[in-house]
Amino acid sequence: RPPAMLHDEDTEADFQRFLRRVDDVTNLLQGLRCTDCAEKEKAVAEAEEKLQDEETKAGVTRTVLTPRGPAEAVNADGFLATLEKDAKERAERRKRNQRLAAALKEEGNAAFRRGDFSQAIQSYTEGLQRLRDQQELYTNRAQAYLKIQEYEKAIGDCEWALKCNGKCIKAYFLMGKAHLALRHYTESRQCYEKILQIDPQKERLFKDCVNEVNLEEKRVKDEERALKEVQSGNAAALAIKELLQRLATPGQEILYYTGGIRLLAELVKDCTEQTLFRTNNGFSILGDNEAVGRAFCAERKTPAEVELCVSLLLLWQAVCAGNEENQRLLLTQPDVKAQLPELLSSRILEIQKETLALISLYSESENGRKLLLKHQDLSRWLQILMAFVKSTDAMAGSAMNILSDLIGEGRFKTQCQVSTGVLPLFTQLLASARLVNQAALACAIGIMGSLCAEPGTRSQLGQSRECWQGCLQLLDEGLGGSTPRYQECVFAVLGLMMNLLLESNGIIQHFAVAISGRCLALLSHQNGRIVTRAIGVLSRVLAASPSAVEEAVKGGVVKKMVKFLKAGGQLTAKYGIKTLSICTKSNRQAQEDLVKADKRFAVLLELLESEDELTVGNAAFCLSQCLGVPGAATALLNSNVVLLLLRCAGGDAARSSVQENAAIALGKLCVAEPRHLHQLRKLNGLAILSSSMKYVQSS
């Protein structure tokens, strides 16, 4: 017979007495060790009284201290030794019980994993008999009770767990689930609110749990309202019920079922009718009616089967619009789950169109996207939806909107690793940019750029020769003038290239000269967004190849960067100064070009006062590289360059690399033109530099 549950008031009082006795023994031991004689004697008397009053527990052996007679004085030290022995025995007994309870917990966990919830409850209960203050045993048993729908018992165990640990998140979580199952919606929300109070980092869990409560509460209310409509004789409600009964009748022609499905789609206008469809087993049409199921799943459909399939898709759109419970139920239907990708890739335009419309209902809401991620294998979806870019009608936009909605979900990025089928399709789309839906293509390129946030996807694309060739071909066709839509494709492909250039490999080195050449040509484009991104690509690709740097310098990149830096713009400045720092690092011609283009280093001095530290660090680096050019340091004599560099080197900059670049520039400045030393000493710069460099080296 399973051990009795401990949930009555007497048991709770007993548990509280147990916890108080632990505190009492601790206090007594502290008193017995006290150096004050009066306190010690008082503690001895209290201990003697408690030990005499203690009742012997069944099956528990206690150390009994025999009371002394009047003629036999109690020896305090001996009494303390006996009491400590008793405490030691209790501690050892507790350790044994802890080991036994832990073993029973593992037995329970094993039973839980194999689905034997009754055995799991038995093991957890036996563990609690050994150790009543074990929080994990209570929460584990509560979880098992939830599995067998013993919700009240689960709540009781969660309450016991919270007596052991008032901040047990698992206890509040399971209690919230149990209250939800009992339709105690307010209590369920309160449990989840407690989780957020205990740990504000659990906000995502809190939102998901509360959303589940809200959905369940809405579902129950909708079903109650729908039942009232039927009971009151509502015509639409009765018609829906009758039509569903007709659709379940076997042996009819396909057109008969198609007509009934169309009528249903027209009748379902609001939430009540959607609920009536659900509560009258509307989602079992495919399973209950063999003819309908066979027509829906047919690989090669007849015209009648096509019409039935389209009618079903329209019906599901009607019953799922804004109804998350219906959306969930639809995706749990095995045939629907299996057929959605097939319908999407069908060559029948009307089926594709209505399938896209149905999926859009899911992708437009957060819960809908979660349902898709949970019930669909989306690894094929990227390729299927990307193929719609070839369509010239609205389906291309619908497909890209679905992908744009899904791309914000981290799980989608993880699931949709770029497959072997997607890459050839994508490069083909890039190469035929003039022939496809360009608005959809721009969106598709942006989606691929977002997928490159996953290192595996980025590495795969970055090593694809065909991908780089496709990007360059698209840029080539945009150089001679293009429509606004094509410009969006150019802008998107530059963004993709920037992401791919976070990689470093031989393919990128091979294409570096070609990439930098296209970007230099785009610097004269009339679209400022394209120009800024072209500079961004230059700031990344030039580092991959000395040959690319040499060709870019010959093409006048330094003069062009100075021109854009003078025009201003924080993002342009960030990319432009990075490009200059790469060019001047190893190219003497670039250093000389910068000295000529930036008279008295007006641009670099302005960048040294930027709020962006990376910009400041690169400006200091460029300056230090140019100080070897004759006359460069002298041109700075009447400027505030020493003060600006000293501020950065002396600790104003948070990054040690920025401090180091500024310090190196100061050193080179004073070597190239010793007259700068006077200003440095005047500002106590040598001491500041010495101190800051020690910090930089240590960090």
UniProtKB/TrEMBL annotation:
**What keywords would UniProt list here?**
Repeat, TPR repeat
Alphabetically, which GO biological process terms does the record hold? axonemal dynein complex assembly; sperm axoneme assembly
Note the InterPro entries from the entry. ARM-like, ARM-type_fold, TPR-like_helical_dom_sf, TPR_2, TPR_rpt, TTC12
- What SUPFAM superfamilies does the record point to? ARM repeat, TPR-like
Quick check: keyword Repeat in the entry? Answer: yes
**First and last residues of every TPR repeat:** 169-202
GO cellular component, as recorded? centrosome; cytoplasm
The entry's protein name is TTC12 protein
Q: What is the protein's species of origin?
A: Serilophus lunatus
